[in-house]
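note to self: the first set is below, dont mix up w the second
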Amino acid sequence: MAPIQERAVSDPRLLVGTRTSDDAGVYLLTEDTALVQTVDIITPVVDDPCDFGFIAAVNALSDIYAMGGRPLTALSFLAFEPCDLPNEKASEILTGALAALGEAGCTLVGGHTLEDPEIKFGLAVTGTVHPDRIVTNAGARDGDLIYLTKPLGTGIASTALKGEMVPDALLTEATLWMKTFNSEAAQAAVEAGATAMTDVTGFGLLGHLAEMCRGAALGAELDHSSIPLMGNIPEMINSGMVPAGAYDNIKFLDGMVYRGDHPDDLLIPLYDPQTSGGLLISVEPGRVESLEKILDSRNVFFSRIGKFTGKSKSINILS
């Protein structure tokens, strides 16, 4: 969800609202069931319309997983200019989304289309979660370890694609990661007793980590050498293939991130706006072995990239 100021809400059934800029809202239905609701809409990040639809769906579903929930239903939103995008191509976008929803066990129940000069597609997704198993982005504790479950670089790869400079290997890799569901990683985190979780999307790794720090009133230390990147990313940065959103994120986080002696080029991937990025998972030291064992058993990629600290609300990037 977008980071908007929380208005006064008197409904005690609203368990998670907008105050901590979490991934989805959570509303209590019964003692054992809460609704998890989100909406996410993106512009094309790949040329193939079917892949785009699939990625957009995976991206939207990720918000439900990041709260520890299970998606149930979805509503689609598609904006396009009929003169520029033939109906069959628009249908392919929906076909890709339906394929992703089918894999997730989520049912498309309707949607809306409108004419717009820029293609946009996304989903409003509703899921459920047991109230005792909700994982928010604000529950981290001092000393918790931080895990990332996908390498960074999708924003840079998409920018290089638009600039007709993307290597085939990077495009293939980025597409594969964007089409990878976060369901297995999220289930592993819940099973291991994760204290906090969020997915890495438009605000980049550092932006979403900053939200976790603010929510928990903690700081964080990152081991720069442990943060995974997709192939060819440094080459793309050197060629100027950096999305404008990365520079927006740098400005937004000014004063909160202590960059040390790291050159700007090395840090840009940490600000890179991701589409369908991985999860950031916080887990206490005593549960690290359990988390890694479960992630391995589910064939989930992961890297331990840092820890939360009680020293300040800043993010320190170490070598």
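second set (the one i keep forgetting abt)
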Amino acid sequence: MHLLRGVIQHYDWGTTSFIPELIGDTPTTKPCAELWFGTHPLAPSEVFTAQTWSPLADLTGELDVLVKVLSAQTPLSLQVHPSAEQARAGFLRETESHTDPLQRCYQDQNEKSELLIALTRFEALCGFAPVKDSVALLRSLGCDVEADVLQHDGIASYLSWAYSCTQPVVMTNAPSWLNNLAQMYPHDLSLRVAPLLNYVVLEVGEAIALGAGNLHAYLGGSGIEVMTSSDNVIRAGFTRKYVAVQELLSIVDTQVLSDPVQTPQRVGTALQYQSPNSSFGVQVLEIDGVATIDPEPIHRILVCVDGSTDELSRGSAGVILPHESLKLRGNARIFVCAGSR
């Protein structure tokens, strides 16, 4: 195994303390939103080899998995991610038309699916709730017009209608999560859409899987985010960044996701999470003594979030090369994140 040095992203929605405390730094007033481990060109990691730090890609080539520690103080945008086919088409289209870099949705040609596993209590919107539940919520908010449109026309037509409205929605008796969004973005048309999504509260260890097209927004908390190595984001609202509503409507998955929260299943000595597709896999090792990671023909990124071993301590990360094995001694909780190569 080789140690990794990740890159912190200082987005304004981040917390000031979680990531610095995790890696043993002193917190400042600067928000630390994400800590990236991987080879994505936006924030490539370094690896310690031959007694020096060098680009991870020099050792591994381009990895197809990206691991982030994410910590949100305020909500992230309402967004979807594309499939591989959609990403290729969108990237080529924006490249050929010389789209302004600040207005690009497609930064690469890769699918972006992800799995978010809570390290603290974590709030999110994730996928569409059953229509009858959303209609009931809208009526409880005093949004009878919205409830009628959804009930009569279904989710896809409702989305097109909601984003064509010219007036902001007026709500009463909104739950705290929705009231918070309304206070931050009082004129955002996505306030008509948020009540259609599953509001979930993850406890430590619980997860949500976000496949291509899943409409979602993280509202607050800290977690491990494992994904295909991509930065393709199509936003519809709750942000000051560029939004592309029509592009989002063209790729959003409007199928109902009735049970978005998952807990891991025990497989041997590890806890296994269900990935949204076969592009990557995530296990958690809860080490109390000695644990062995057997060789596999793929790269794996390890992130220690609690405790320590003889190889990794809290907040540190490493990479295992194909066909390598590793024995860890100590007491720790370590995420093992594997791509497909």
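remember for set 2: The longest strand covers residues 216-228.
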